[in-house]
Amino acid sequence: MCIASVAAAGITSRERRVAPAITQIDPGVPSGGARQTMTTGTHNRRPLEGVRVIETGQLLAGPFAATILGYYGAEVIKVEPPDGGDPIRRWRLVKNGTALWWYSLARNKKCVTLDLRTDAGRRLLRQLVDKADVFIENFRPGTMEKWGLGPDAIKQTNPGLIYTRISGYGQTGPYAARPGFASVCEGFGGFRYVNGFPGEPSVRPNLSIGDTLAGLHAALGILLAYIGRDKSRHGEGQVVDVAIFEAIYNLMESVVPEYDGMGVVREPSGSTLTGIVPSNTYPTSDGKTIIIGANTNSMFQRLCELMGDAAMAQDPRYRENIDRVAHQAELDGLIGRWTGSMPQADVLAKLEAAGVAAGPIYSVADMFADPQYHARGLFETVTIDGEPLKIPAIIPKLDATPGRTDWPGAALGAHNDEVYRELLGLDDTALAKLREDGVV
């Protein structure tokens, strides 16, 4: 039996037990060619052990929420269509037929196939959800209701379920039925408007920030609902409704009260932060760039002393942040000329010694070379087809009950037999019929 089987065999909804020591995933279990050896030893109990999660999400937002839960001990059963599975299996950089991203995003998940376009597939999903604590879906609003799997229907047989829904615009409102991809929702939520340089088109970071933020908000909502189920709702679950655009909107700091109170629209400001000075990027003599955030009065004083002009901190043009904001361009010019006189390593060393917040702009190659990343344990190593592969650790760090990666993303349907036999009690005949009909 693979470690996934050991971790979940016999667990029913809301049962709790301590996880066994992890040694090695059985190399005979299909997992997309992935075989992983883990360090032998007894691990601390993780905070979400005994919590069962059914994930029907695809792409990023829903799956990332489930990844977080699985990292901290939840049993995550990922349901995918039999004809290809989650598209992320084939997105971005693909090696030996599987996207490298998959091994990170699908870690610790039991992968089963189920065709939800069929009545039989929907019946099986209903049985899985009835045995779960948490259900995550990110279909277009109304889809689950059309299939008879909406929250009101599920509540009849599993009133304690935390039913989590992720969509572009939420489950209500005039835009609920619109398709909502992260790129569009980042614009609608306000982020793209302030991201860029004045007078130029908005800029997209080379990441799906909206999806990741929605996943984080979904995980937070699930945990809040889980705590509330036991503390205030007497075991009754609830719906967690996450909109991608709202996850973006939640980042927008003071834009709402500033607009309502003073009619000010925050505009794009390039590499600066409106109303906080100095906080910018500055050149160095070797063609590199650094970030300096010396926006408190005491830190600005230390920066001025380091630049050889301690009196500048008491200059009426620069004494308080509001003064520095009014003279931002000239102040940034002074700082840039100073940083531009030295190589990056030298100027950063001086700033660090003076206690001024500053740092480089890192690529992933820089991250791999930096001791701080390694000291914080931000890379975890799994083994894929005999080759080591680093994937990112997930935060936050918990000193008594830390999360961990037990196995990388598995092959499509790798856990069909385990889940359908052990959890739902299907026999050989039933499974053979489901395969013959293309349901799994």
Chain-averaged pLDDT: 90
Shape: elongated
Strand content: 15-25%
Which structural category do the helix and sheet elements fall into?
A: alpha/beta
Give the end-to-end Cα distance, rounded to a whole number of Å. 21 Å
Name the poorly predicted regions: 1-41
Give the CATH level 1 class of the largest domain: Alpha Beta
Secondary structure: helix percent: 25-40%
Task: Give the domain tally.
Answer: 2
What is the CATH topology classification name of the largest domain? Answer: Rossmann fold
Radius of gyration: 26 Å
Tell me the strand order in the biggest sheet.
7-4-3-8-9-10
Largest sheet: 6 strands, parallel
CATH architecture of the largest domain: 3-Layer(aba) Sandwich
Oligomeric state: single chain
Explain briefly what this protein structure is:
By secondary structure, the protein is α/β, with parallel strands linked by helices.
Key traits:
15 strands, 36% helix, Rossmann fold, 6-stranded parallel sheet, alpha/beta, 440 residues, single chain, formyl-coa transferase, domain 3, 3-stranded antiparallel sheet
